[in-house]
Amino acid sequence: MLEVINREKGRSFTINDLAQLLDMSYAKTYNTFQALLEDIDAIGHGERISHTVTTINGNDLGIPLDTYRLFLLKRSVEFQVLDYAVQSSRPNLESFCAQHFISKSTLLRKIASLRHFFEEFNVSWSTTTLQLKGDEKQIRFLLNAIYWVAFHGQEWPFRTVKHDYVVQMRKDIQTQQFDPVTSLQLDMFLGLCRTRVGTGFSMTSMQDYQDIFPGSNYFTAPLLEQRMYPTLDKEALNNEALNNENQFLQFYFHIVLSSRANGDDAFTELYYYLKKIGGIAWDFTTQFFQFLEPYQRRNEPSLTGNHMLVANFARSVVSIIVMKGHRFDLDDFSASYFIDDNTSAMSQLMYKYFDQETGNPEYASLRPYRQELHHNLVMLLAPYLQSVQSEDNVNVYLLTEHNGFYSRVLEIFLHDLGFVHIMAETADPADADLIITSLANPVMLKDQLHIDAHKVFIWYADENSKQYYELYVRLRDLYQNSFIDASSVKAKPAVVTDLRRAAGNGE
Which candidate in 32, 73, 266, 344 could, as Cys together with 258 as Cys, close a disulfide (CB 3.0–4.6 Å)? Predict the structure, then answer.
């Protein structure tokens, strides 16, 4: 409800408005709204807000959605016990149950779904010691994602590690400049790592990472020092453990955190270093792009020449090797509806490449992680789907003027969607999945064009953000129905003869 109200700040809602938007009864909507007001009062944002059924307004509520989510999360016993387990050196289930007046059986029932979620990523949550067990790298990535999404820059979550201390630590060790959000993410990650070390869970071996980046180099250089852990003695964090922490941090810097070109040369350094030393990650990457060349459209830029894409592809391979499978990230919180792992053209090409290389002993160490590697790389390549000759693109024919600024902006918008292929001007519009036209009623062209009105989207000269969104939804649905949910394609609507009605956005 708060999300709906906040989404359109400045608009006033009645209870009936909210009931319709949320598909709820009037009574349930009214009671939910009153409960929302009580929660806002409990959060402490000023005096209790009073609303009538005609004055519900997002501007007046004065509470961001992230703040309310964190408030609800902190009240949930599931998060309370997880936070207790993470930040306590000796967590005890019975002690927690006694402090929170909850039976052991009830608590275990409430956290069952969370334990199952962890198990999907090979991490178990003990019901006796409350300790998380599994690969320490994966545990940290899981916890880091949970704490980041939960607190989202609103407050510092870790009780035994001061934020100011972590900020100084980050400034001492960071090898490049980051934007404010990335810096905050790094602070959160360092705080979590410091908490894990402080509760007795230092990093395990990072030998696989060091094998990929052998010797002393930019990607393995020591960043951490014993002085950065003043509350720990040398027995708790010996030289071997400190080296593992350092290599894990370097792995996070170069393989996890730096995956886009944001004004720095991080991906360039990785690209040229791997090209220089070779190895399994680089060889697997370059051979794939050589394999892909015959399938690329000739009117699209070569993917092989996209150094950032090649570097990110190699980065995914490195991650699979080091993690011995999939590394948890924020995308794992939501299922991907945008591209099917098994049926998309890029997926089929990836399988073909894997089948071709199955007998290559050079890639024997990658073979057990084929499925995870396939998933990660298909998702990485999804934005470049239009570069591949396949039927997995939404073919769009532009019936618009080509001599204006806004026409060029439209083409850039379509190209950046990744799954859209803009057809040549000489192509037959009848072969298009969607025809975007600036001519709402092209009577003078009726003898030259035979347009199926179902395929038409009217693009008005005074286009706005709403039109871009409507166009995106139309294209997304075409892609979804044609290539992902083909078995449940909706029936076509009744025949539409007026092109102004065909777009669904005519005035």
Answer: 266
